[in-house]
Amino acid sequence: MFRYFEQLSTRIAAPFMAHTSRNGKVWQCRCGQSLFFRNSQCLACQAVLGYQPQQSRLSSLQPGPVVDTWLADGNLDAGAFRRCANLDTPAACNWLIPAHSNASLCVACSLNRTIPDLSIPENPERWRKVETAKRRLVAQLISLGLQVVPKSIDENTGLAFDFIGIDLEGNAPTTGHANGLVTLDIKEADDAHREKVRVQMREPYRTLLGHFRHEVGHYYWDRLIADSHWLGPFRTLFGDERASYAEALDQHYQNGPRPDWQQTCVSAYATMHPWEDWAETWAHYLHMMDAVDTALGFGMSAREMDLDYQPFPLTTLYEPEHPGGPAFLSFVNAWIELAGMLNELSRAMGQPDFYPFVLPPAVIAKLHFIHLVIQEEGGRADTVMAST
Questions:
Q1: Mind telling me which InterPro entries this protein's record contains (predicted)?
Q2: What is residue 24's predicted lDDT score, i.e. its pLDDT?
């Protein structure tokens, strides 16, 4: 077993040695063609492809010993697989299921409680976009060692998704989380609608993947913080979540964030309530981790650039004396440099900043807290299979 974050730290220290280490974003077909997370067929040789979530691996496939089963090239010892039943739906899922499983849907698709009404002409394409973002979320959660249990298996502590539109009374759904159920207004998959709402809400950033990462942050607060030894430290760092959420919501939308919010929070919305501060910071942790991992996988690094950024000191961290503190700080500083480079690339194309946020020291401490919580979860956080 390799530790995910330890391995990522090694790549941060030696970014141009990425070809010798795990690259979780680009794989190779048996013909040598590069493969990407979304692919279900090689464009060069037409080989069938499949993603193995527990191994964080996309590979070309060859027919298995039984009809409709497949073996993964380069990982034949993993046994036979079947392809997710949602492969031939608008969801276009390319994930695999162990052949011995009774399930017809992969772990990501099994989280769906409600899919959009596909008789509405716009919804098949909306669902495709939603599922693409959700699969990326679920793959990341698994790679971090977080438990992903469908509500269909555990109603009380499981996770589920409702992708719905306007109801019979003409009411639009509210995107949010409640007791493990994440609800998403399917119109969020329309770029024009989402951008209109982003401007109305004065948000610098609004994406499907961002929604998912934020809402599962609420889910994992319930799983990892509530009733745990982390609850007291959480209240010290983020605030007391027992404060009325309804009152906090009214206060936020009537009066806006407090004037000094940029000194303590990652976004204006994070100031609304400790739960939202946690979810916003959690989402940014996932953004940062995935983006740095992806950039290093492609050999991208701003380490050699002459960027005038003051690195954060160890005293910024939630637990400055933690043995893993220097590695986490290197990750954060690598992200700051990478975001600066990517922002300039976006500006060169006349686009908004890639990462329109500023991370003050108080947010770094919160990010470190979240990192430590994830590391502790199940004893397998930050772990990926050695086979990757």
A1: UCP012641, Zinc-ribbon_6_bact
A2: 57
